[in-house]
User: Fold these one by one.
Assistant:
Number 1:
Amino acid sequence: MTLDGTQHSRSTTVGGFDRTGGLWVLAVLGGGGLGLGALLPAVAGWLRDAPWVPFEGPLRLLSSFDASWLTWGRPAIGLAVGLAVAAWVVSATPVLEVDPQEVQVRRHGQVERVIARATVAGVHRRGSKLVLESEHGRTLFADDVEGDRDAVRRAFVEHGYPWEGPRG
């Protein structure tokens, strides 16, 4: 709402990863894959000898690969898998386009669903999830939305959605 009591007509985008956050996810998961690929034979060998670990056969197989190309190949494969998982995580994170008439939920760059404002009776946090509910308590949307919690709350409040509960 503006100072004169009218609602904003422009939409507000919330959620998703900003550039820094996306790069952070890529670095952490890519580095984790790289490290796991480099340490795989040692970890598999250690786990193979532990009496409480199941699947001794596959662990024995993983720890037995000793070809010279695997010295650099395992870390490279781990890095590629880690980066692929990170790219999926970043693109699968919901981005919400909030305006006075509707909320568009986008994932992977595509509009996944549109929630009409008339159906939203309440917006609140349940743990780390943002929840949009209908008048009869039906969950219209419930998922983790990245970004500043107060900015997410502000986007809904400024466009006239009923925010329930504490700030953020």
Number 2:
Amino acid sequence: MSQPRPGTRDRRAMLLEAVRDGSGGIAELAQEFGVSESTIRRDLASLAGAGHVVRTYGGALDTERSPREKDQRHAAAKDAIAREAAALVEDGEVVLLDAGTTTGRLARHLAHRDGLTVVTNGVNAIRELAGFAGIDLIVLGGRLRHPNEAILGESVLAQLRHISPDRVFLGADGVVDGRGLCCPSLEQSVVKHAMLHAGGEAYVLADHSKLDQAPFSYWAPLDRDYRLITDEPRVDVTFPQFAESVILAGGSETVGGAAHDGRRGH
């Protein structure tokens, strides 16, 4: 007995996920979803109207930016955040790095250290660390997601159950108080949430442009103590919801009165 086809709303959500995973041709998508090409065109037009995709000749592209484009945005802020995060890491620790451009910059600042173990699902971090013998680099294996170059899947979740890092550093496309980390796919939100709970200390790396922003529809709840490392100097005024757990990049003070040594601010 054949399975019923999903309704229009469910199909469009699944279609958006397929485009974000790299499928963009109308003929390919029509075959994948078992509908006509005209139906796919209408669905893509609806998604484009909502700002989720950009229509191209014969298909669509995700509006999610490439890693290179992301890395160039607010580059100085990301580097300052990465340096601040690197200063928290002590010799001999096991560190878990999420995929992302800011975590990739953190990997660059850790590359010349000796005696660190770095576990990551991010291609950016792998590139930065692969040539350094002083780093014990552990790559979480799974399916590579484009365009943000994150390694995801059930195999990643299974591996995370076998490690207990000293510190976890998570990237973010958006951070919203009460919701958590905004993610471009459901699969990525599940992996981020598992990473959040894997380690002894958890940190979110997010420049000012990510605070209180929700560009996507998937969430990794921040349902444990964590520290937010950001470059926003007036975060306690502009975003008071984060004030109790913030480390400011580029300075020695921590908003909310917590000690600047990676301890939790609650």
Number 3:
Amino acid sequence: MLILVGLGNPGAKYASNRHNIGFMAADVIHTRHRFPAWRKNFQAEVSEGTIDGERVLLMKPQTYMNESGRSVGDAVRFLKLAPSDVVVIHDELDLPPGKLRMKVGGGHGGHNGLRSITSQITDGYRRMRLGIGHPGDKALVHAHVLSDFAKADRDWLVRLLDAIADNAGELVKGADSTFANRVHAITEPKPERKPKPEAAADKPAPAGEPAPEKPPEKNAMAAILKSLLAQRTRR
């Protein structure tokens, strides 16, 4: 079994805060994978379901961020799981907005939710770090994390949360790198390559002069790709 823990603070007052992006991710996974209704257990809202055939316990600790470890610790001990069976989804100041990074172990980086969880189950759990950006001044951090996402954040936030839910199957398989790469490909798609301008050889020859022969395509696939690019430019 895998425990997916979204971190945040309970209550409508905090629902749209940057600090609650972990709760938001858990909610989208819950809906996308048709988990049963949330219920109370382990000092948290929990829901048990399956993702790609694997049992998963979704958790949203209701202890407030700074005491998240009490909730996670209760679940890990009751279910007799290892820290590596836990993925904690949390906000990350040191990543630009919309960036995702996976990590196992390490320090808490000043994040009180991680500090609390580490005190209960050691630091051997997996972390899904979701960038919310840094306000630029340490004195502004508290207000930044406890303020709501701006309207301008909506596009990248929705795209990120959808990508997390759509690729959660890689998490249950333990394929954290594959998961992160797939999310990255969705949230930061490579720009389409524009076809090169037509070469002089493709231009009509002046009257009275024979048209120069075009060089042969290197292979059949090259011809197919060229045709597809031409179709794309006509759309």
Number 4:
Amino acid sequence: MLTFEEKLSIIESFPELERKNVSMGRINFHYEASASDKKNVVYHLHSNGNGFVYGAELNGYKKNDKGMVNIRDFSADELRTIIQKSILSLTPKISTKAPREKWINQDHQTLILVQEEDMWSVYAGNNLDGAFNSYGEAAEYLHEEGFSRV
């Protein structure tokens, strides 16, 4: 079993997670870029080594009624793996079925414009660059930033 310090070191190695100290010496780690209202990836990590990782969307783990997986007895590799999977399960997905356009600038940087439900989203890789209420607003933004539709 990993010590609290070892678990903390592994969790803090994920730059996308933000530490939040909570009551009774426990620590949560939030993923602010989450596509859902769920932001806690690590929940109530305690100095006794107990804690939970959000795993509602993950297969192969025993979860409580809130979708949390107890990590008390996890090895270093198991902890890294479940955190990676948890973050991935909360990461916004780019739909391959939604209307999408490729835009490029003179430096050959590429952005993708995707219609998602009633919004138009601009992505740089998997990262959301901006969200707009209409295609026109998104296209205007891209033009202002020096991009042209391919």
